């Protein structure tokens, strides 16, 4: 951690600060830690925390390789600590409301789920996350690409349908290489199709009327966007079923539902948009620890999402559809 940033946090929150994670683990009596270091360092930090008997929330992606992710899960099991996976999208109020509607059967059987993020400031404006996040030459790319962002949607595809992803085809960006269009097409065991398309090195083709007033903070391919403001390119997820469809503006905190009779804005969504959904996630973790319950989102969920994304890379390398046999 940068010394000046550490001093800012210490002064702002009246806490003790450490530049060495092991020193913190040695000297503090911690209930759990949140691992928010770059993905390439997740395994080292998680395994270290596990040896001190501390429960762990690990940000997405769980790791950069299947082997690292499996080793992290094994280390936590051996140490008897809980490993929570940072699938924070599950705690966004609009996403939670969509899940409730799906579970009530309002859409019928899910047939299609989609997200695309296309835009930015051209190739010159593209910013790779770099080798400290994702080792050069391996899966990586930008902050709204397949590896760093799309992995959220892969988790939602599994959660919305209540089934595993069984086949994958796609293509992902390589850390340190020139970016290209990324895509992932997945099929679940229930027959639903999930489609992701990302390109952060071009320009949006959205027209002005496609924007929305957003309750929460957000990001688009050109950068962060403030809360309580008009967003020209709002992130959104489309879910289609046999009886109805949803368009979920998860950061704007709005949902539109369409069936054979109507299109409506869905009422009753909790006013707890980004970034306040992280507090909902933390409350769920504290509840699990206090009540000695299993995590709502486990390390295995993180491993399964990672396996699907890595399968898209394998698909492009082999020019074939990949069948998933989850660990």
Automatic annotation (TrEMBL):
Residues in Gfo/Idh/MocA-like oxidoreductase N-terminal domain copies: 3-86
InterPro entries for the chain: Gfo/Idh/MocA-like_OxRdtase_C (IPR004104), Gfo/Idh/MocA-like_OxRdtase_N (IPR000683), Gfo/Idh/MocA_Oxidoreductases (IPR051450), NAD(P)-bd_dom_sf (IPR036291)
Top-level taxonomic group: Bacteria
Family, similarity comment: Belongs to the Gfo/Idh/MocA family.
GO molecular function: nucleotide binding
The species this protein was found in: Paenibacillus beijingensis
Domain Gfo/Idh/MocA-like oxidoreductase C-terminal stretches: 99-320
SUPFAM superfamilies found in the cross-reference section: Glyceraldehyde-3-phosphate dehydrogenase-like, C-terminal domain, NAD(P)-binding Rossmann-fold domains
Protein name (record): Oxidoreductase
